[in-house]
Amino acid sequence: MFDLARLGSWTNDIRSQVALPLRVDLWNGQRFDFSPEPPRVEIRVPGPGALRYLLSPSLYNLGKAYVEGAIEVTGRASDMINVVNALARTSLKAEGKLGRFIRSFHSHSRKQDKAAIQYHYDVSNEFYQAFLDPAMVYSCAYFETGTEDLATAQVKKIDHILNKIALRPGQTLLDIGCGWGALAIRAAEKYGARCVGITLSENQAALARERVRQQGLESRIEIRLQDYRDVSGQFDRITSVGMFEHVGRANLPEYFRIIHRLLAPDGLAMNHGITTTDVGGGETPYGGGQFIEEYVFPHGELVHLSTVIQAMQQGGLEVRDVENLRRHYARTCAAWTENFENHAEQIRGLVDPKKFRIWHVYLAGCSYAFAHDLISLYQVVCGKAGMDPANHPWSRRYMYH
C-alpha cells in the first residue's frame, strides 16, 4: 500500500524549489497544486499503482505512463514538456546515476532498418499531411529572417541545401532518404538536375512518385524503394537529409565510404542530420532518448558532431562547410506541434489513441530539446578528400545567391 504521506512530502519538496503550473488529482479525490497560479497541466492518477511514475519523474517514466494510459495528462504539449522537464531536474538530483541514455549498438541489417523506417514513416501519408507543410518536408526548416511561415521556411531550406552543393543544370543528384520527394522535385524544377531519390518507406515512395507524375517530371526524377547500400553508379551531387540518424554509429564510416564511392571526383555531398550534444555520445538526459528509442525511432542512434566529422574522414571525405541549425529545428518542431494540436480531432481519426499520445509529446519534446541544446542539427558539406579545390568558391557567398 502506498504511503500518501510520502507523496505529500515529495510535493512540498518540489514546491519549495520551483513553482509549476501543475495540478495532480488522485483517485481518492485528493488534489495537489504546485503553484498558486492556475494550472496549465493536469495529471490524473487513477490508482495507487501509477504513483511510482510520478515519484520518479524521468522523461521516460512519465512519457511511458502517459502513452500507455497509466496516467491521464491534459494541457498543451509544450506546457506538458516544460513541466515534466522541471520535475525531472528538481526530483532526479543524481544526474550521475541517471545520466544520459547510451543505447547498445544495433546490427542495422537491411531487414531491421526497413522495419524501423516503416514503423516510423508508414503511419499514413494523411497523418503526416495533418501537421507538416503542404510539400510534406519532414526535416528542419530554414528561417532565413526568422519571420517566415513553415511552408516558406521549408522551401528556403531546400534551396539552402541545393545552393550549398552548387547544383547546376544537367547534373545528377542522389537524394538518400528522399521522403515524399520535395527536394528532388525542387532540384529538377528549379535547378534543372536529374535526380534519383531513395527511401525505405513504401508510403513515401508511392506518394513521391505520384507527385513527380503530377509535375510532369518522370523523365528527370526516379524514386526508388531502395537501401542506400544497394545504390550503384556515380552522381555529381548527393544529399542526405534527416536520414543518417538511422544508420547507426558503428556503420557511419561505411556509410560515408558508400557516399564517397557514389560521388563524382569533383562532386559535393551534404549531410543534414540530428546530433547529440553530449561529447560522450549519450542521448538526451532524464530518459528522453530511451523514450524515443522505444516509442518513436526504434534503432535510431545519435552521435556527436565530432564523430560525424571523424567518420566522414574515415570514409574518404573532406569536410568543406559546417552549419548549426539547432534553433531552426526548435522552431520547426514548435510549428509541427501547433499544427498537430490544431488538427487534433482529424489526427485522432487517423491513428489509435496510443499513437496520438506518442506523437503529441514527441514533437513538443523535440522542440524543447533543440531549444535547450540537448540535441542539435548540423549541415555538413563535403567532397572527396585529396582533390584539388581550385574549382571550389573561395568564400561562402555563393550559398546565398
TrEMBL record:
GO biological process: lipid biosynthetic process; methylation
Family according to the record: Belongs to the CFA/CMAS family.
Residues of the DUF7884 domain: 12-92
Gene Ontology MF terms in the entry: methyltransferase activity
Protein's UniProt keywords contain Metal-binding: no
Keywords: Lipid metabolism, Methyltransferase, S-adenosyl-L-methionine, Transferase
Lineage: Bacteria, Pseudomonadati, Pseudomonadota, Betaproteobacteria, Burkholderiales
Active site: 366
Gene3D superfamilies (alphabetical): Vaccinia Virus protein VP39
CDD domains reported for this sequence: AdoMet_MTases
Official protein name in the record: Class I SAM-dependent methyltransferase
Pfam families tied to this protein: CMAS, DUF7884
Provenance organism: Zemynaea arenosa
